[in-house]
Amino acid sequence: MSGAHPAPALAQWLAALRRRSRLTHRQMSGLLAEHGRSVTHTTLWRAEQGVGLPRWATVEAFVTVCRGDVRRAARLWRSAAHGRCCPACHSPHRRPARRPLPLVTEPAHLLQAMRAVRTTAGEPTLRAMASRHAVAGTPVSYLPRSTLHDILSGRRVPTLDQLRLFLKACDTPPADFPAWEAAWHRAAAPAAVPW
Questions:
Q1: Disulfide engineering: 8 pairs with which of 50, 90, 136, 157, CB 3.0-4.6 Å?
Q2: Which residues lie closer than 8 Å to 3 by C-beta, 6 or more apart?
Q3: DSSP H helical ranges for the chain
């Protein structure tokens, strides 16, 4: 089972919960919108596919609208986030490698940490991340997909502003920003050297 993705147990549980609720993904999205929570039906659908780890906010909304056990969902989500296929499994299958921020001293370390943050955020698509920073009323983004692709593939070092936008797109708590900024200064400033 070493190649298994850690999210199947969570995905299967979510799918079974939705079937019991007899709700479609569109109905779930509509009910959430009525209570001021914006989660698209596509995001809800992806949460039960087991392809990537959904964000906790998505899982919580999914379970709440289906009247499921949020505590059980949290256990399954934490297990998946730590690379385990289920809470009872003690063998990590895919744990995102992340060097503690105080030890980030090179661009490659920063890239590794950024990839891990994106994984923890549920692997949001580049399109979704770019849309979080769209210029109002236009398709233009302050953090375009092409820029995100170049950064995450190691083709360019992010600027400090790009790093902040990336962290916001991954729902990183603002309290964590100073540690990230210090890591950026150690790893990437003053020159944008190749990864």
A1: 50
A2: 93
A3: 8-21, 25-34, 41-47, 56-65, 70-81, 107-120, 126-131, 145-152, 160-169, 177-187
**Overall pTM > 0.70:** no
* CB distance 10 to 77 below 8 Å: yes
For the chain, domain boundaries: 8-81, 101-187
Q: Return the residue matching tokens 């995100």.
A: 148
- Spell out the residues 6+ positions from residue 51 whose beta carbon is closer than 8 angstroms to its own: 5, 7
Q: What is the dihedral angle through the alpha carbons of 177, 32, 128, 178, rounded to the nearest 10 degrees?
A: 0
Which tens digit of pLDDT belongs to each residue from 136-162?
Answer: 888 888 999 999 999 998 889 999 999
Asked if 143 and 170 count as a contact pair (C-beta separation under 8 A), the reply is no
d(CA 77, CA 36): 23
Sign for the CA dihedral angle at 11, 15, 128, 160 comes to negative
Structural contact between residues 161 and 141, judged by C-beta atoms closer than 8 angstroms: no
pLDDT digits (tens, 9 = 90+) for 16-40: 999 999 999 999 999 999 988 888 9
Q: Residue 41: what are its φ and ψ, rounded to 5°?
A: -65, -30
134 forms bridges with which residues in the sheet? 141
Q: Among 146, 81, 145, which residue's Cα sits nearest to residue 117? A: 81
